[in-house]
Write a structure and sequence with these properties.
The protein is mostly helical. It has eleven helices and no strands. Helix 1 crosses helix 11, helix 4 crosses helix 9 and helix 5 runs antiparallel to helix 9.
Length: 225
Amino acid sequence: MLRKTIVFVLLCLVSLTAYAHGVDDETQSFLLGNKGIAFGPFLYIGAKHMLTGYDHLLFLVGVIFFLYRTREILLYVSFFTIGHSLTLLLGVMADINVNAYLIDAVIALSIVYKGFDNLGGFKRFFGEQPNTKIAVLIFGLFHGFGLATKLQEFEFDKEGLFVNLLGFNLGVEIGQFLALGLVLLVLGVWRRYSSYIKFSNITNIALMAAGFLLLGFQLAGYFTS
């Protein structure tokens, strides 16, 4: 029964992630027709994209899963934020084109990495523990390019582009803050029970499985597109 539940949840996550990477008709219409500065709408679109960006959120869930102190959580989330903010702005402003499927495949691998790391896989199989803060920063760079590829699908008016990107990026941070607030609330309640540690292995195995499924989805898209 437990295995069936995990499989069902993972399939739902994959479906939701695939949907999340699309742009709804209303947003698409706005982005295609926008001219000049539109800070507010871009802020809203950024927040909505992060709240529906399940691959980004799955990675962050893995990052904070074993973090208990507020200072540590803020530190790791800051490394992730710095990484994806840099490449989001750089990718769009410098028009650095990266294949969306391949970038999303790396993002999927970041989820696998974090689940494997939480399981103690690096120490167990390689005898060494990677610097987790540097890893979060590096994967944050890839996540930022993932966000940039979504925006690069549209030919933006150069006038006001930087301001609009700042709005989008701020929206991403707001969406991230809201999503993490909910995740921390759920984890905070769950941590009061012994089942949190008892099922931590199963949870992180499920996280890895979700990452591998998303990886397969992106590679299939790359080779068939």
